[in-house]
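ESCALATION

Customer reports they have been waiting on this structure for their group meeting. Please prioritize. Original submission:
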Amino acid sequence: MWEEFNLIEFQNGVLSESFFNWDKGTKVTDVLDWFNSNIPDIFYDNKFSEFLLEIIWEEFGDMPIKNDDEIELDFYCWKKGTDRFEIWHWFDEKLPNGVAEYAI
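Update from on-call: job pushed to the front of the queue and completed.
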């Protein structure tokens, strides 16, 4: 299912066609939330497409951060209180050219 999801084309962050239980027009992040809730290990393998990584990275830019650099809410596989630099390092390893290419 995850492999099939990586093959779907998206338009403005929504599904451009129906996918399993989700209708055309469903936000990609809603589908990713489902994967995170039901298949948590998916975020630790190397099967991400660059496009999906960019979506999650962009969403991370809206994450509230405490003064001590901890995230204030759960974010996909990271629990509230995780140091944001831990998450940045994860993205830096996964994105083809690291996080320097992407501005939050």
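Sent to customer with the following note: The beta strands are 10-11, 14-15.
Escalation resolved.
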